[in-house]
Design a protein that fits this description.
The chain has 13 helices and 12 strands. By secondary structure, the protein is α/β, with parallel strands linked by helices. The strands form 2 sheets. The protein has a 7-stranded mixed beta sheet. Bound molecules: glutamic acid (GLU). The site of glutamic acid (GLU) has 11 residues, from strand 3 and helix 11.
């Protein structure tokens, strides 16, 4: 075993470098063979496509689409497709690698992938989005497949987009193939519990961590950044388990109420106000960046990458950070958070509830059978709790923070599988 020279940690905006620096740290702690390190450090496949779309006004716009398969060592690759202006190849590469580690941490038989289209869906009509989703799917017809690569929702996509992907893929194959994509509407073979699955997994991870820290949920406060699918369900379920959610936020701003925000009301408000919290009156409006440094017990970043960084890490007062988003903490901020004794339930563990229920959806599609919501929740809660315990015990064993132990658990599994399968 030779020592792998870690890349210099920059507090960069580049999530791929952030991912790599943790991967290198964990590889060194684990004593990973350099050969396997080299296999895992680069994505297995990267596809970039140009998608010319006729807009409603008759003009043609060309969008750039990506799909990166980081690894298919554990099984068919799995991961969402993001529709956002910030999408770029480096980001998709990082997100694809995170999917590999995430699936390995929760021990489901998938490799990791991610896709994205650089666009602003908020400024596009449903018809334009539909044409873009169908064009993207067709351009990936050789890549996608229930035994090859299985897309799912991510930022800017949801059940509607998954329905179009499933339909376009099925048309091209000439057979209805619902197991090609997860996160579908229920009537198309979606799974009960999938919509709330990521937020639910965040809640399960938060409670498991609070038990270790001996924080009583009924006396705890919480701030949630991001009020999309992940943040809103995480907030709702944490509130249900006794926490007082004192702050929430979305792109319109941050909202604070020291008595606690009624999350069901906030969700109703968002749903009747164009998907935004703007003007939500049950809480006072505070600057976005203040949410992260509030005096709370639990902080849930559930929006986007690199929001916790060297600028604000020192000011964080929470005792526990539960990462609903992918890559919300920059690599350099890790050191500050660790120094200050803040526990982190890292992204590849805490937000793995979504892909876990995606796996259940795929299993149900292949069985031609439907599970009850109760069965889905029971099984996913168990997977999340077991994964948390494994990562926690590994952190004690190696005397490393939870983030690094999560990578250790994941890398160890993928490396062992690779050894058994062998290379060329
Ligand atoms: N996009 C989600 C994630 O980042 C879900 C992926 C999936 O279900 O395949 O975990």
């Amino acid at each position: 075993m030779s020592y792998i020279e870690p890349a210099p940690i920059k507090d960069s905006e580049n999530p791929f470098e952030s991912m790599m620096s943790r991967f290198e740290m964990a590889s060194n702690t684990l004593g990973l063979d350099e050969e396997i390190y080299n296999v895992l450090k680069t994505p297995a496949k990267q596809v970039v496509v140009s998608l010319p779309i006729t807009m409603d006004d008759g003009s043609i716009r060309v969008f750039e689409g990506y799909r990166v398969i980081h690894s298919n060592i554990l099984g068919p690759s799995k991961g969402g497709v993001r529709f956002d202006m910030a999408v770029n190849l480096d980001e998709v590469k990082a997100l694809a690698a995170w999917m590999t580690w995430k699936c390995a941490v929760v021990d489901i038989p998938y490799g990791g992938a991610k896709g994205g289209v650089k666009c602003n869906p908020r400024e596009m009509s449903p018809g334009e989005i539909e044409r873009l989703v169908r064009a993207y799917t067709l351009s990936m017809i050789e890549i996608f497949g229930p035994d090859r690569d299985i897309p799912a929702p991510d930022m800017g996509s949801g059940p509607r987009e998954m329905a179009w992907m499933m339909d376009e893929f099925s048309r091209a194959q000439g057979t209805t193939t619902n197991a090609v994509v997860t996160g579908k509407p229920l009537v198309l073979g979606g799974s009960l519990g999938r919509v709330e699955a990521t937020g639910r997994g965040v809640m399960v991870s938060a409670l498991a961590a609070m038990e270790k820290l001996q924080i009583n949920p009924y006396q705890a406060t919480c701030a949630v950044q991001g009020f999309g699918n992940v943040g809103s369900y995480a907030a709702l379920l944490l509130e249900e388990r006794g926490l007082k959610v004192t702050a929430i936020s979305d792109i319109s701003g941050a909202y604070y109420n020291k008595e606690g925000i009624n999350i069901a009301d906030a969700i109703r408000y968002r749903d009747s106000h164009d998907g935004r919290l703007e003007g939500f009156e049950q809480a006072e409006s505070i600057p976005q960046e203040d949410l992260l440094t509030l005096e709370v017990d639990v902080l849930v970043p559930a929006a986007m990458e690199d929001v916790i960084n060297v600028e604000n890490a020192e000011k964080i007062k929470a005792k526990l950070i539960v990462e609903g988003a992918n890559g919300p903490t920059s690599a350099k901020a890790d050191a500050i958070i660790n120094k200050n004794g803040i526990m982190v339930a890292p992204d590849i563990l805490a937000n793995a509830g979504g892909v876990t229920v995606s796996y259940f959806e795929w299993v149900q599609n292949r069985l031609g059978y439907k599970w009850t919501g109760e069965r889905v929740n029971r099984r996913s809660d168990r997977i999340m709790k077991d994964a948390f315990e494994k990562v926690y015990q590994t952190s004690l064993e190696y005397k490393v923070p939870m983030r690094i132990s999560a990578y250790i658990v994941a890398i160890d599994k993928v490396a062992k599988t690779y050894k058994w399968r062998g290379g060329f």
